[in-house]
Each structure stands twice: as C-alpha cells, then as structure tokens.
Amino acid sequence: MNTCTLCTRKLPAEAFVHNGKVFKTCSSCLSKRREKAKRTASSAEGQTETSLETIDFYEVSDYVADKISCCAKLAIDLNIRLDDETLTSVSHDVKLLVKLVADTIEDGDGYSWV
After folding, report:
1. Over the stretch 40-88, which tens digit does the pLDDT of each residue have?
2. 54: which residues sit within 8 A by CB, 6+ positions away?
C-alpha cells in the first residue's frame, strides 16, 4: 500500500497509475488538481485588463485614501516601485523596507499592522 502525497490515504499501487505513468499522488487527486487548474485558467481568461500606475513611495497612503474615498467597492493590487536612492538609504534591509511601507499605510488610515 502506497500513501498519496496530497490526500495521505493509503491506496493500492494501481491507484497511483495515471495515463500509463506511475505517480506518488493518487489518480483521484491528480484528476481533481487538473480540473481545478482548468477552472482557474478559464476564470483568469475572463478577467479584465488592469492599468499600471507609478506612484511615489511617499504618496502611497494618499493614493490609497483617494481610491477608497471615491469607490464603494474597491479592489487594489498594490505594487510599489522604489528608486535607487530609497533602496540605498535602507541599505537593502528588507525588514526596514517593509516597515517603511507599513508605516506609510498606517499614517494614512490609522490601522496598525501587528
């Protein structure tokens, strides 16, 4: 009896054969995963195209506040592009960089990140 790497059920060896190949994942889980991938791919095709905006690091909170104030329903995909000067000033310290982003957001809405 083999154990499936996804569902962790103990199944006979023939349950791990799919399309003539032997896998560590059972045929049932492989089929479910492929169906889910197809649904995800088809739903992604129906999504609308988004625009890309460049926002200065210190204006992020104002930008988010403006977007929230004018929209009842809001979905934001936030990407921040930092210039060389900002990256140099934080000496590529990722924790400090994340703290700068969180502090900027907190200043705008009063929310505290834990």
Report:
1. 777 666 566 667 778 777 777 787 777 777 665 555 555 566 677 776 7
2. 81
SS3 (DSSP) at 13? helix
Closest Cα partner for 82 from 60, 106, 57? 57
**Single pTM value for the model:** 0.38
With H, G, I as helix, E, B as strand and everything else as coil, classify residue 109.
helix
Which tokens hold the place of 95? 């924790």
Contact between 29 and 7 (Cβ < 8 Å): yes
User: Is the CB of residue 72 less than 8 Å from the CB of residue 28?
Assistant: no
Amino acid at 92: H
